[in-house]
Specification:
Blueprint: H1 6-17, H2 32-46, H3 50-62, H4 69-81, H5 85-99, H6 106-125, E1 134-138, E2 147-151, E3 160-162, E4 171-175, E5 181-185, E6 194-196, E7 205-209, E8 218-224, H7 234-245
Antiparallel strand pairs: 1-8, 2-7, 3-6, 4-5
The structure holds zinc ion (4 copies).
One zinc ion binds near residues 123, 126, 129, 225 and 227.
């Protein structure tokens, strides 16, 4: 964790932790395994170990049983703490939808929503990440160019096609009124026997917008963006200029 994010996290701890530590609900009885795992996750959250809580919650989700509403909030808070803002927002929205204003974590959920809104504002302004907050990296498929270049299928990369009018001879013939054969320079290829390829226009290659990055040259990686420029990556400069163009 870098120092810049620390005050924000501390603020959240203050805001969310004001009602004391998280504790396990008592009123409902859920799957025993879920209860046991939730207790583990809450313990990890209370000791500030959000990375492990994240893993525990993911194991609970894998059980594929009916889960308590509270889990959605607790997982959302955990995801915020490990800076997975997009996932956090999904679980927070789910909690608010399921539990509503009477939910046990409603106040904390509203606080978390404000914190997430701030994060999303930063994500929207940032040119270095996608709209989920994942750092953009150069596209592997097009090597950051946004374009896939391949050998022209029509001329097989030669750039020219045989002239269809003279069949490559460069000469056309006609009969005079006296029945004599007259020779002419082919008007279609000017006597060359070849014409520029009608698909690639002589470029020998065809270009398509990269299907992976949709022509931006960038894809989201696995890293959560800190919205800080580092070094002078060409990909980043390209993205900045493209975003301004859009
Ligand atoms: Zn010709
Ligand atoms: Zn061609
Ligand atoms: Zn690409
Ligand atoms: Zn960013």
């Amino acid at each position: 964790m870098d120092i810049k994010t620390l005050p924000r996290l501390m603020l959240l701890v203050l805001a969310l932790g004001c009602s004391g530590s998280h504790s396990l609900w008592a009123q409902n009885s859920y799957n025993k395994q879920v209860e046991a795992q939730m207790e583990v996750a809450i313990g990890q959250m209370n000791s500030g170990n959000y990375e492990d809580a994240n893993l525990t919650f993911r194991q609970i989700l894998k059980l594929e049983v009916v889960l308590p509403d509270d889990l959605s909030y607790l997982f959302a808070e955990t995801l915020y703490m490990v800076r997975q803002y997009h996932n956090s927002k999904n679980f927070l929205d789910k909690y608010l939808r399921l539990a509503g204003p009477n939910g046990r974590y409603y106040a904390q959920a509203m606080d978390l929503k404000h914190f997430l809104d701030d994060e999303y504002e930063a994500i929207l302004v940032c040119k270095l990440c996608d709209n989920r907050g994942y750092r953009l990296i150069s596209c592997d498929l097009c090597h950051g160019t946004g374009v896939i270049t391949s050998e022209c299928y029509f001329c097989r990369g030669v750039g020219v096609n045989l002239c269809e009018v003279c069949k490559g001879d460069g000469i056309t013939t006609s009969l005079s009124t006296f029945g004599e054969i007259q020779y002419h320079t082919c008007p279609n290829c000017q006597g060359k026997g070849q014409v520029p390829c009608k698909v690639c226009h002589g470029e020998k290659v065809t270009r398509e917008t990269c299907p992976d990055c949709h022509g931006t040259g960038l894809n989201a990686g696995n890293e959560i963006c800190d919205h800080e420029e580092r070094g002078s990556s060409r990909a980043i400069e390209q993205q900045s200029s493209r975003t301004i163009e859009q």
